[in-house]
Amino acid sequence: MLMAETGSAFAEEGGLYQWVKYAYGRLPAGIASVLYWITNPLWLGGSLCFIAFDAFSGYIFEIKGGSAGEWIFKLAFIWIAIYLAIINLKLGKKFIGAGAIAKVIVISSLVITTAIYGIKNGFQPFDFDGLTPTLGGFIAIAPVILFSYVGFEAPNAASGEMFDAKKDTAPAIRRGSFIATLAYILPVLAIILIVPSDQVEGLTGFLGAIKEVYTVYGGAADFLVGLTALLFIFGLISLGSAWMMATDRIQAIAAADGSFFNGWFGEFSAKFGTPVRVNLLSGAMSSAFLVAAMTLVNGDAASIFTVVLVCAISTLLVSYIIIIPSVMKLNRTRRDVNRPYEVPGGVRGFQVIGSILFFYICIGSIGVVFPGTLESVFGLEYDFQEIWGMARADVQLFTAGTMLVVILISIAGYMGGKKLRAELANSK
Questions:
Q1: Which terms in the Gene Ontology molecular function aspect does this entry carry (predicted)?
Q2: Is the separation of the CB atoms in 107 and 277 below 8 Å?
Q3: Which of 4, 183, 311, 332 can pair with 399 through a Cys bridge, CB separation 3.0 to 4.6 Å?
Q4: Does some domain include residue 25?
């Protein structure tokens, strides 16, 4: 709701970069945009392509781990996603829409099939006591939950391509948040209500759950699992590309505004209308992280890389420490701006929701940047060696160090844009 109101009021292309700039200036905006953007190329190359490969090799056609085939598949996955972000936004959105349909089909098939599975094998009693979260469990899962439910303001990145951004943005954000919520809740509810608890514990991921419940289809099960895996992979490609479309545009707008080096990255292709230079930078970063993830697989180097990767792909969450106060300030101080959509309760409702959200964002961010800290405060056990394969001091050195490097990159980008900012100021 906060992003829907802010996006409808401040509909300029660049979204969150513009909001933070209006509230606090270019430097905080530049830091927020880098934190928001850099997550996605690292996530694409360090995580998403691995999930897609496991789905393909495990359920469609086996490819030997470490072989040339694995390298080809993962690099192809990355650059297909980048290509979809580069091509004309209108055409790229068609692929993204098709990917969204594929994800809906996959989720719907799981929900429907688990219902059939339950009718055939009986439904499981709903154990509310087993669902009661512990304090330790809440602290551990908070960053994951928050990461899953951020990013709904992304449509603002391409508001310049909308027919009427002030009217289109809020509905797009509301629809996206509602659909995403259902996409998380329905499959989980279907599984815990229908699949026996001892079998749930043995499931390995989303497709593992599908393989289990698809046994109701008898001899057709393997074919249907393979088909679902293909749709799952296509959905992953569209997901990665959709994020690239949004975050790369935000970073390009920041560059064009003098907040990310000298403006070279702010050029948009005359042919495609997309920020090709930032797209290619994202592709190169994704490929570099893929190489690191594929080669640093053993020993201390592997442990260090895992810590850095987990922290790096969580910078999007940390960016909200800047974004949330910015939209709250705009809500208080820019009441002269027309707001086609408003949060229920007006300014007070906006500020209350924003304060609660900021509190949770801080909890999640502490869990990412300083793992184990909140557990220590509440006297809970946190075994760094078991979780990370490293001592506490080493883990927190690399998590905090990774975040510091990202922030220093954004500050360097801001300093590198000094000349362009002066030119923009003189041109007014």
A1: transmembrane transporter activity
A2: no
A3: 311
A4: yes
Question: Is 51 domain-assigned?
Answer: yes
The pTM score is 0.83
How many structural domains is the chain composed of? Answer: 1
Give the pLDDT band of residue 422 (cuts 50, 70, 90).
Answer: very high
pLDDT in tens, 344-399: 899 999 999 999 999 988 988 888 888 888 888 888 888 888 888 888 888 888 88
Domain that holds residue 120: 2-422
Taking the C-alpha atoms of residue 380 and residue 50, their distance in angstroms, rounded to an integer, is: 32
d(CA 231, CA 51): 13
CB-based contacts of 43, cutoff 8 Å, min separation 6: 240, 243, 313
Q: What is the 3-state secondary structure (H, E, C) of the chain?
A: CHHHHHHHHCCCCCCHHHHHHHHHCHHHHHHHHHHHHHHHHHHHHHHHHHHHHHHHHHHCCCCCCCCHHHHHHHHHHHHHHHHHHHCCHHHHHHHHHHHHHHHHHHHHHHHHHHHHHHHHHCCCCCCHHHHCCCHHHHHHHHHHHHHHCCCCCHHHHHHHHCCCHHHHHHHHHHHHHHHHHHHHHHHHHHHHHHCCHHHHCCCCHHHHHHHHHHHHHHHHHHHHHHHHHHHHHHHHHHHHHHHHHHHHHHHHHHHHCCCCCCCHHHCCCCCCCCCHHHHHHHHHHHHHHHHHHHHCCCHHHHHHHHHHHHHHCCHHHHHHHHHHHHHHHHHHHCCCCCCCCCCCCHHHHHHHHHHHHHHHHHHHHHHHHCCCHHHHHCCCCCCHHHHHCCCHHHHHHHHHHHHHHHHHHHHHHHHHCHHHHHHHHHHC
pLDDT, one tens digit per residue, over 234-260 is 989 988 898 899 899 999 999 999 999
283 pLDDT band (50/70/90 cuts)? very high
In a domain, 293, yes or no: yes
Whether the CB-CB separation of 114 and 194 falls below 8 Å is answered with: yes
Do the domain assignments include residue 428?
A: no
3-class SS string, 12-65: CCCCHHHHHHHHHCHHHHHHHHHHHHHHHHHHHHHHHHHHHHHHHHHHCCCCCC
